[in-house]
Amino acid sequence: LGIATAMPYVASKFAVEGMTTTMALEYKDSGIRVNSISPGMVDTKSFPKAPGRPGVRTAESIEEGFLHLCAGSYTGTYFHADEFDEAKAAGKVEQAFKPIDEPKFTLS
User: Considering only CA atoms, which of 96, 90, 101, 103 is closest in space to residue 69?
Assistant: First the structure.
């Protein structure tokens, strides 16, 4: 997803996904799992958000997804907090956890 006038911000988000995939591959034989979370807009003391702003969540609101990620055997995986909430409501939590490393390109 691109956002006009926000190139450094957007590039940093893509970098996190690339680093997650690379580290997951590099450390998989060591038993170290590497995953990432896209929490969305989070209201924190360091970066407060305006009260009532749509789409803003608390740090506590990503706890369940984080704990699920930690309890599983995931590596090279990410989830978006909003998608986790939607998948949970539909009883399909596992669908919220997606591998970052996309499948190889093949022509059919």
Answer: 96
- Torsion sign over Cα 85, 86, 91, 93: negative
State the average pLDDT over residues 58-65: 90
- Which helix (H) or strand (E) is 12 found in, with range? helix 7-27
Span between the terminal Cα atoms of the chain, in Å: 26
User: Are residues 44 and 28 in contact, defined by beta-carbon separation less than 8 angstroms?
Assistant: no
pLDDT in tens, 9-61: 889 988 998 999 999 999 999 999 999 999 988 888 888 888 888 889 988 88
Q: What are the DSSP E strand ranges found in 1-108?
A: 35-38, 41-43, 56-58, 77-80, 98-99
Is the pLDDT at 1 greater than 70, yes or no? no
Return d(Cα 9, Cα 2) in angstroms, integer. Answer: 10
Q: How far apart are the C-alpha atoms of 15 and 4, rounded to whole Å?
A: 18
